[in-house]
Design a protein that fits this description.
This protein has 138 residues and is of the alpha/beta class. The chain contains 5 helices and 6 strands. A 6-stranded mixed β-sheet has the order 1-2-3-4-5-6, sandwiched between helices. The longest helix has 18 residues.
Length: 138
Amino acid sequence: MSKPIKCNKTIIWLEENILFCKFIGDECNNTKFSKDCLEEYIRVITEISDGSYFPLVIDLKQLKNNYALSVIKTMANHLEFRSAILSKSFVVNSFYVQFAFIASKVIQDPVAPNKVFLSYNKAVAFSLETNQSFNALY
């Protein structure tokens, strides 16, 4: 496991060829996630990845539904963020957020697939599979 780096409202680290990003619920009291934070996340992810591509598991379980949806929409659609990782697995705490994600066609991404899970273990399994598929090609 790499040394966890605190970045804005998250902690980011690399473990078993998967990047992890955990939002700190106490610090996420706004109703909307700011795009301005993404540049810092990209910098930290690029630093940790050291030129390699890894899937990203984003733990949003500590967040309120509206804020979690805001994070998903912002991270899923940001071009530079998409180019820094293999896939994005969002772990949420409600069926409402999962359904809203699935119903929104705007956040479908063929380059860096987006998935929403209620189970942390399923998100990690998807990320491991994505990483293995990518590495099998190269």
